[in-house]
Amino acid sequence: MTDQSYFGARSGWIEVVSGVMFSGKSEELIRRVRRAIIGKKKVQVFKSHLDDRYEGVFSISSHDGRAVDAAPVDSSLQIARMTNPLTDVVAIDEAQFLDPGVVPLATSLANRGVRVIIAGTDTDFRGEPFGSMPQLMAVADIVEKLHAICVICGGPASRNQRLIGGKPARYDSPVIMVGGRDSYEARCRHCHQVPRLDEDQVPLL
Ligand code: ADP
Ligand code: ZN
User: Fold this and answer.
1) Per-residue confidence (pLDDT) for residue 53, from 0 to 100
2) pLDDT surpassing 60 at residue 57
3) Rounded to a whole number, what is the largest CA-CA distance in the chain?
4) If phi over 0 gives left and psi between -120 and 50 gives alpha, with beta otherwise, what is residue 182?
């Protein structure tokens, strides 16, 4: 289901575009924002950022090179303060990094008639729910879960494989590594590797 299915609805709802890295979330967010602009809507785009290592922080670019302008934020309060009361559409990228306040913020914007588009990675490198994404997916009116292509087997990828020095990161490494020494690739559930210290003691379910 996409935003198209909400044509004709009273204005004000929450759309979540979730999925792993490389699944096309930014492409999809850019597509929706462009179409809203074509529809003469007043659009504000925000992107959460953690530190200065991100280049082009004033725009959202997808891996295919398309881009829209975005205001960098590091809290939901900043989004609340920067949102113009006349705005029709609020889009937020990288929502997994935002504080839990993003959930009531998205809810109150939608309740007062704003179309809220949220893109974010729904699972962290361990394959566990990431930040407020599960709550956002629960309160959303429309949820789309995108998949990338597993770089190992070519199947649909639903996991972020973190590599440190080219090797799978251990379960106990931090969820957010500042400094950019890690890298990621898209993998399916079966090719995803998260070695644990207590690996042998984990019961098979
Ligand atoms: P996201 O925001 O989810 O990280 P992007 O919209 O930035 O995704 O990028 C999606 C694009 O990434 C795809 O259209 C494709 O060109 C490229 N890409 C690179 N690696 C992969 C992969 N393993 N699976 C799918 N797409 C990939
Ligand atoms: Zn695979």
Assistant:
1) 44
2) no
3) 58
4) beta
Catalytic positions, please? 94
pLDDT in tens, 146-189: 999 999 999 999 999 999 989 999 999 877 776 667 889 999 99
Q: Which pLDDT score is estimated for 51?
A: 47
Q: In a mutational test of the pocket of ligand 1, which residue from 63, 92, 151 has the highest number of ligand atoms less than 8 Å from its CB?
A: 63
pLDDT of residue 8 exceeding 80, the answer is no
What secondary structure, in 3-state letters, does 14-36 show?
A: EEEEEECCCCCHHHHHHHHHHHH
Fold entry, domain 4-146: Rossmann fold (3.40.50)
pTM of the model: 0.88
CA distance 72 to 66: 18
* Alpha carbons 197 and 189: distance in angstroms, whole number: 20
| Ligand 1: centre distance to CA 127 (Å) | 18
The ligand 1 site (C-beta within 6 Å) comprises 19, 21-27, 62-64, 148-149, 151, 186
For ligand 1, atom 16: residue with the closest CA = 64
Pair 144, 23: CB distance under 8 Å = no
CA triple 191-195-200, angle to 5 deg: 110
Domain ranges of the chain: 4-146
